[in-house]
Amino acid sequence: xxxLLVAVVGSMVLPIDDLLWYVLGCAMVLTLLVRIAHRExxxxxxxxxxxxxxxxxSLLRARLASAVQCAQQGSTGLAVEQLEAxxxxxxxxxxxxxxxxxxxxxxxxxxxxxxxxxPDRVAAMEDLSEEMNTALGPGDPEALAARIVLxxxxxxxxxxxxxxxxxxxxxxxxxxxxxxxxxxTLIARGSLAVMRHETPGADRNAAPAELTAVVRDMERxxxxxxxxxxxxxxxxxxxxxx
Length: 242
Hints:
Layout: H1 2-13, H2 18-40, H3 43-52, H4 57-72, H5 76-94, H6 99-115, H7 121-136, H8 141-156, H9 160-177, H10 183-198, H11 207-221, H12 227-241
Helix pairs in contact: 1-2, 4-5, 4-6, 5-6, 6-7, 7-8, 8-9, 8-10, 9-10, 10-11, 11-12
C-alpha cells in the first residue's frame, strides 16, 4: 500500500515513463500478495506471529478465534481456508491429540460440510469423534458435541435408528460425566426428544413431555433469552399449536 501511495505521489511530479509504470506495477502486485496473505492470516495476527513466533499457543488460539469469527460473519469459505492452514500448524506445535487441534478439525469438518460436498462426511465425523473420545475423554464437551453432530448427520442421511442410538449415548454420557444441567447434556436431551417426535413408534407420544422438561431446565440453567432456550421453546410451541 505504501508503494502504491509513492507511485501516485510520484506521478504528480515525475514524467510518465517506463520507471513510473514499473513502480506502479510492482505496487499493484504487492497489494495483491498482501490481500492473498491476509486471507490466510489477518494482518494483525501476522504481526503477532512475527513477534511471538508461529508456535505460540496464544497466537494459535487467536487464529482459531479469527476463523470462527469469519464463519459467524458468513465468510464460510474464508474460514475453511484459514482452518485448513491452521490445523497443520496446531498439529506441529501442540500435537495431533491436543484439544485445540481436535477442536479446529471439528469446526473445519462442519464448515466444509456446509460449504461444499464432503465425501463420507458421516464416516469422517465418526472417526474424529472416536479420536476425541480417546484423547479428551468421552465426557469432554467438545467430544460430546462431535457425537451430537454425528447423530444429526446420520438423521439427515436417513439412518434414523443409528441417529437415535447416538443421541441416547450422548444423553447418557453427558448426564454421567457432565451433569444433567450441562449445556451439552441439555442439547442432547432436546435433540433426542425431537428425534423421537419425528419417528413413528411408542416413544413419539412421550416426546412433548420430554421437550417440555428440557425447556424448563434450559430456562433455569441457561436463561430464557439464551439462543438454545429460545429455539427449543419455539419448537415446543409449534408442537403445541399443531
